[in-house]
Specification:
The complex is a heterodimer of chains A (213) and B (321). Chain A is mainly alpha-helical. Chain A has nine helices and no strands. Helix content of chain A is 83%, strand content 0%. The chains are: A mainly alpha (213), B alpha+beta (321).
Chain lengths: 213, 321
């Protein structure tokens, strides 16, 4: 398939950028119009959490969709989508630190150590942090593509920790966390298959060389 | 036969072509309008919480005030009816209000059985007359860490128990919610072990603070809050206060309770509000009062220690959570 012209991709980035901001905008608008119900902090926490996971999954689907559909230009959006996952994840974390714990460090450390769903959540965010920091072109150049790519595989673990965080916090009715979990499983399985196939190819190639030698 | 069979002539042979074609156009338009309307209702349902407030219920009369009421300001009717755990309808706290609108609360009988001298089936309207209706403004503390102040209307649970005349061997009271999967969508799915069951020790059940609520804000109890009859035990976490009760039975052994069966390490039989005993997933030291921004400290027995602490003297509350 012919790659999309650069100009078109750049033009498309504007609506995608604005669209990704919509959930934050809707929350803010509702917040100022008494639209968040009886427990606004709970709604903000849940909403930002779900959008974090959603953006993580969208980011993780860029490569499979690109490979399977041939829409190579999709890669141009991956960084933005990943950074939005970090953006909503940070809002989610801030809600916890500020609105839930009111910067009580002692309470928070106690929580992180004692409550496994918090441990998982904090892990998920921490794993996203280096990815957000090294998301610039400069960092890709500085690190070298191979090493950069290796580091950015942390997203697999971040997304897994995020889904585990969701599963562990739910009291009953695991439909939604399991939905996120199944999509993640599909996306990670795709990568495992690609990796296994690549390994088999390399082995065959090495074996072939050995025979020739 | 007097009933005529429908005509065999297709309508297309009677109606001139241009008018049924325009009818098709009209129907397409109607479908589009219907879809837009449905979309609109969907948005209204999901964007405007005001729209889901139930129509004002029937006023209850002859309500007397109670010295057990708190002087704290009650939460609004809107918050009480729109932020609520009622897993039979939904695990979302905002949804039960809409989903419970058509729940049938009449006719309604409550079966009193087990170790009693007089097992009986009581009609809800009989229960309403067992004792003068009292207003009980109680603090309500959810195990999830939020709380409200709710102006219940109800009768002391003890009034009903006395009617049944439990045998001396009866040590516990077990409660059961209605099983109505046709009306309670989540009862068709295994979210919890249905029907919901709860229990109290006999002395807890006889305590004057324990009530059977039938009203809220001087009106008939809204469906979303457990109509027509629910338990309210204000010194325990909210899930102990079972809704839509159809069975009350007396036993000599500790009855099973739904959340305890679901996760015994998280929810004990007693489930007294206790800021010192953390839930494995939440700290119970503080709570967010709905309508307040900052959290407030949680009080032992939800602030009812003076009245109920005596029930538990000699009991290790850390083990018997």
């Amino acid at each position: 398939m012919k790659p999309l012209p650069e100009k078109f991709v750049r033009a498309l980035k504007v609506p995608v950028f604005v669209g990704c901001l919509a959930p934050a905008f809707v929350l803010t608008w509702k917040g100022f119009h008494d639209g968040l119900g009886a427990n606004p902090i709970d709604v903000i926490t849940r909403s930002t959490g779900k959008w974090t996971l959603t953006f993580l999954l969208i980011t993780l689907s860029v490569t499979p969709v690109r490979k399977l559909s041939g829409l190579t230009w999709l890669i141009k959006f991956r960084r933005m989508l990943g950074l939005y996952a970090f953006f909503y994840g940070s809002l989610h974390l801030m809600t916890y630190i500020w609105l839930d714990k009111f910067f009580d460090v002692h309470e928070m450390l106690h929580d992180i150590a004692k409550r496994k769903f918090i441990t998982a959540g904090v892990t998920a965010w921490t794993l996203m942090l280096p990815l957000a920091l090294t998301s610039t072109t400069g960092w890709i150049r500085r690190m070298g593509g191979k090493r950069w790519q290796k580091l950015h595989r942390l997203i697999y673990f971040s997304a897994t920790a995020g889904v585990v965080h969701f599963i562990w916090l739910v009291k009953a009715d695991l439909r939604l966390p399991f939905t996120y979990g199944s999509i993640l499983a599909v996306l990670l399985t795709y990568r495992a298959i690609v990796w296994l196939m690549a390994r088999a190819r390399t082995r065959r190639a090495i074996a072939g060389q050995a025979v020739r030698a | 036969m007097l009933i005529k069979k429908p005509s065999d002539i297709p309508s297309s042979e009677i109606t001139p072509k241009p008018s049924y074609l325009s009818r098709r156009k009209f129907m397409a338009g109607a479908i589009a309008a219907g879809a837009a309307l449905a979309g609109g209702f969907y948005l209204r349902e999901h964007m405007d919480s005001e729209a889901t407030v139930q129509a004002a219920g029937v006023k209850l009369s002859g309500i007397v005030k109670s010295p057990f009421s708190t002087s704290e300001t009650p939460n609004s009717f809107k918050d009480i009816t729109n932020y609520n755990n009622y897993y039979e309808f939904s695990t979302d706290k905002y949804e039960p209000n809409g989903l419970s609108k058509d729940f049938r609360t009449r006719p309604w009988t409550v079966s009193i059985e087990g170790m009693v001298k007089k097992p009986k089936k009581l009609d809800i309207d009989t229960i309403l007359k067992l004792s003068p209706l009292e207003e009980r403004i109680y603090r309500h503390r959810c195990v999830e860490g939020w709380s409200m102040v709710i102006p219940w209307v109800g009768i002391p649970l003890s009034a009903l128990i006395k009617q049944a005349e439990p045998l001396p061997s009866a040590k516990f009271v077990a409660f059961q919610t209605i099983s109505a999967p046709d009306q309670m969508p989540n009862q068709k799915r295994d979210v919890l072990d249905w029907p919901y069951v709860e229990g109290l020790r006999m002395d807890e059940a006889m305590h004057p603070l324990a009530i059977l609520a039938v009203g809220l804000y001087d009106e008939v109890l809204p469906n979303v809050d457990g109509a027509p009859l629910r338990l309210v035990v204000p010194w325990k976490y909210g899930f102990k206060s079972i809704k839509a009760i159809v069975k009350i039975s007396f036993t000599d052994s500790m009855p099973p309770t739904t959340w305890n069966r679901m996760a015994a390490n998280e929810y004990g039989f007693y489930s007294n509000v206790n800021p010192q005993k953390d839930h494995p997933r939440w700290s119970q030291a503080s709570e967010r009062r709905i309508g307040e921004f900052r959290k407030r400290p949680t009080l032992m027995f939800n602030g009812y220690a003076d009245q109920v602490a005596g029930l538990y003297s000699g009991l290790d509350l850390n083990k018997n959570y």
